Model the fold of this input.
Amino acid sequence: MIVCYTLSLLSILLNFIFRNKNLYLVIITLMFVFFSGFRGMEVGTDTIGYARDFYSVANIQIEKIFDSPYRFEPGFTLLCNIALYIFDDVQGLFFLYAIFTWTLMGYFVYINISKKYYWLAMFSIVAFGFYGYSMNVMRQALAIAIACNSIQYIVSRKYIKALTLIGISTLFHYSLGIMFPVVLFVILLHYRVIEGQTRLIYIFGVICVLVIFISASLFIFISSNLDMFFGSYVGYFSPDSRFNAEVGLSGRLIAQSIFYISLALISCSYYTEGEQRIRILLYSIFMLIAAMAAFSQMGVMKIFYRIVDTFNVYICVLLPEIFNMEKRFDIRAWGIVIVVIIGFLQLHYNLVNGINEVTDYSLC
Done:
């Protein structure tokens, strides 16, 4: 708990000590790697399970990682092999995951935040839950970090590279396959909307309806075709599963959803053009999907928090974009103060009650 509070404070204070963007990002990223990579076995819901399965998975021959008898993805099996060879200890696996996850996230911030609010991006990563989340479901966290770096290629319309990166991310966690239809939808918008210079705010109603319709249709399809999982993840959809239970009415999830939608609408109220226009569209769509998934936790099933976690990470780049677009100093100053306060409140709630209402997530 002390670590998370300390990192959130340092993400702010180090900006005043190290004025250089590159130096700041290197130092804060190394801190993220250190505390995540050397965490104890009591930190994280899956940590003990990974320790238990490490040697069994790591001894799978490299040529058989795509045909593993275990439920883990090929990327996880490969990193287990590397950790066994270099460190011969499961702590080495956690360290490797920390290095790759936070190097990729640091690079994502470096590439996408060109002006002075890069510190806000790193603060958001800790305060809004992704840092703590990464120590509980590290496979998905690394996959998300890989997928995040596809954004620069989507924005520059290098779609093959973007889809390739997303494909690689699915090798570390299959859930990132959800990014494929999202990117294909954005590609369609590039040609049908962006080229026509239509203001983004006018298409939000359509996007909301599509997100809700697609989510509901996908849930119905999956629930009706459980045999396609070949017995692997059917438990998530079983009536007896704790993941299938509705969270119930949650004021926190309602507030969280409103926050995501508000960020999307606020970002679209600014005039943008070119690549920035595309970037804002992407982040706004991701916020909408996160909001819809948070609502779905209350109305459909708890496991939708996995979708929330996949898309709300982009808060770390959307918030700096909003403040970079705002011209009035007083609005920027008060806005940053409000965001920092909300961030600390969110962090405290996560540490006490769990990330996205998942109360068995444990944090350092």
Notes: The radius of gyration is 20 Å. The longest helix spans residues 274-299. DSSP finds 17 helices and no strands in the chain. Confidence is low (pLDDT under 50) at residues 194-198, 356-364.
